[in-house]
UniProtKB/TrEMBL annotation:
PANTHER family: 3-OXOACYL-(ACYL-CARRIER-PROTEIN) REDUCTASE, 3-OXOACYL-[ACYL-CARRIER-PROTEIN] REDUCTASE FABG
InterPro entries: 3oxo_ACP_reduc, KR_dom, NAD(P)-bd_dom_sf, Sc_DH/Rdtase_CS, SDR, SDR_fam
Enzyme class: oxidoreductase
Catalytic reaction equation(s): a (3R)-hydroxyacyl-[ACP] + NADP(+) = a 3-oxoacyl-[ACP] + NADPH + H(+)
Protein name: 3-oxoacyl-[acyl-carrier-protein] reductase
Keywords on record: Fatty acid biosynthesis, Fatty acid metabolism, Lipid biosynthesis, Lipid metabolism, NADP, Oxidoreductase
Molecular function in Gene Ontology: 3-oxoacyl-[acyl-carrier-protein] reductase (NADPH) activity
Gene: fabG
């Protein structure tokens, strides 16, 4: 069965791996990107690239219209786009805080709310939000990011209760340390410190996150909603 899947921030990193995994499984995949050229490998897999900045409701609306025209209403939404603006609290500007919240939390609200329209009509749907181990455990220098990722849990669980009777599931994936552009920006010292705390002793490959997202969107996961699934090599155990 080929479903209409939308992945935000699918042009690189974890989002690209998620888009690739759904496309390889035969789904109709659309993904958002903000600038530059859409990655050739996703074009070759037949994925639809839609330009969209999730901080802009108008662009979100336009993106959905384009996806709906080409693939039909979104049946599986993966809200993956996110940013960091790390800083110790004393040096964190209000803009550092609000811009991270606006992308990671309010941006997720914008895309989920718009997807909900079609899912309500279809009386089914799958929504997977990409949070982070630091949303549960906290991380010095990431109060803005951590707060935004923790908020996704309350957001997903509220919607799981609100929309469960319509067979729409809302789940959260909380990756640990994944080797992407986002983590390559971290200072060497922080990377080494994190690595020493991961029981599996290594970073995650993007495919290891994508596999769990696909599972949560599959028939096998039809009775899972409001769950937070850590994919962190054991880094966040106990939360
Ligand atoms: P990257 O920095 O590699 O990619 C981020 C993606 O989000 C890009 O596609 C980017 O688009 C997109 N994006 C950012 N802001 C916006 C916006 N305003 N509108 C639309 N798209 C936007 O990050 P990762 O792949 O590492 O992370 C993906 C998700 O996983 C994020 O939510 C992140 O917080 C989470 N995560 C990552 C971890 C890691 O270790 N890497 C660990 C835990 C969670 P563009 O290319 O245009 O900038």
């Amino acid at each position: 069965m080929s479903r209409s899947v939308l992945v935000t921030g699918g042009n690189r990193g974890i989002g690209l791996a998620i888009a690739r995994a759904f496309a390889q499984a035969g789904d109709k995949v659309a993904y958002t990107y903000r600038s530059g050229e859409p990655p050739a490998e996703l074009t070759d897999l037949g994925c639809l690239a839609v330009r969209c900045d999730i901080t802009d409701s108008e662009q979100v609306e336009q993106a959905y219209k384009e996806v709906e025209e080409r693939h039909g209403p979104v049946e599986v939404l993966v809200a993956n786009a996110g940013i960091t603006k790390d800083q110790l609290l004393m040096r964190m500007s209000e803009e550092d805080f609000t811009s991270v919240i606006d992308t990671n939390l309010t941006g997720t609200f914008r895309v989920v709310k718009r997807a909900n329209k079609g899912m309500l009509r279809a009386r089914k749907g799958r929504v997977v939000l990409i949070s982070s181990v630091v949303g549960l455990a906290g991380q010095a220098g990431q109060a803005n990011y951590s707060a935004s990722k923790a908020a996704l849990v309350g957001f997903a669980r509220s919607l799981a209760r609100e929309l469960g009777s319509r067979s729409i599931t809302f789940n959260v994936v909380a990756p640990g340390f994944v080797d992407t552009d986002m983590t390559r920006d971290l200072p060497e010292e922080t990377r080494d410190d994190l690595l020493s705390k991961i029981p599996l002793g290594r970073y995650a490959a993007v495919e290891e996150i994508a596999g769990v997202v696909r599972f949560l969107s599959s028939d096998e996961a039809s009775y899972i909603t409001g769950a937070v699934i850590p994919v962190d090599g054991g880094l966040g155990m106990g939360h």
